[in-house]
Every structure is written in C-alpha cells, then in structure tokens.
Amino acid sequence: MGRREGKGGKSAYGRGSKLSIRSSMVGLIFLLVLSFFIMESMLSANGRRAVYARAVFQSVMTGVSRITAAAHFPSDVLAGLLISFSYYILCEFLYRRISGSAQLKS
Q1: Residue 75's pLDDT band (boundaries 50, 70, 90)?
Q2: Which of 2, 40, 91, 95 has the fewest CB within 10 Å, making it most exposed?
Q3: Membrane-crossing residues (predicted)?
C-alpha cells in the first residue's frame, strides 16, 4: 500500500514521516490532564464522567478530522491516541503516588 504523492513528491498524508501526529497526541494529553484536574475539584460523579467523556470525544473527533482531511492514516491516528492515553495513565499514576506520599509525610 503506497502513499499518495502530493506536490514535490511529498506524501499527501502529513510530512511522510512515521507517526507524524504530534499535535494530536499533545492535544489529547492536554485535554486529559486538564479534565483530570477539573474532575478532582468536582463532587458529582456524573459531572466527572461528563468532563472525561468530553475530553475523549473531542480528542477522537480531532483524530477523525485529521483522517478526513487526508492528513494522517487511520492507523497513525489510532496509534497516537493509544500512545497518548497510555502516557496520560502513567502520568496520573505517578501524580497520585507522589501526591499520596507527600500527604503521608505531612
């Protein structure tokens, strides 16, 4: 399966590099981290779910828009979302562990 050629022999899907979805990955990580801190201050479980669902929905729709604009392959977008989500889970785990140990020392 070859890439479509654009002007100057460059790929029509991004810059031709592997996994060229840095902006989508950073956007997903930003939205998830932002929603995490918003959720920490919320008391309602339904409100927490709504904030998290909004962040995930917006991230997925950003990925879909990149596919429909022929900027990325679907596999690239899926890989970027999985990498970003994995990174977020790691960051949340470390944050909870560090903040939990800091509270115990106080």
Answers
A1: confident
A2: 2
A3: 20-39, 77-95
Q: Is the dihedral of CA 42, 44, 36, 21 positive or negative?
A: negative
Instruction: Give, to the nearest 10 degrees, the angle between helix 74-105 and helix 45-68.
Output: 150
Which residue carries 């904030």 as its tokens? 51
- Read off the tokens for 13: 């899907």
pLDDT at 76: 85
Which token pair is 14?
A: 């991004």
Q: Which pLDDT value is given to residue 5?
A: 45
Relative orientation angle of helices 74-105 and 22-40, to the nearest 10 degrees: 40
Query: What's the CA gap between 77 and 25, in Å, rounded?
Result: 9
| Tokens found for residue 32 | 């998830």
Could you tell me the two tokens for 78?
């899926």
Rounded CA gap, 9 and 13, in Å?
12
Amino acid letter, residue 91: C
Residue at 25: amino acid letter: M
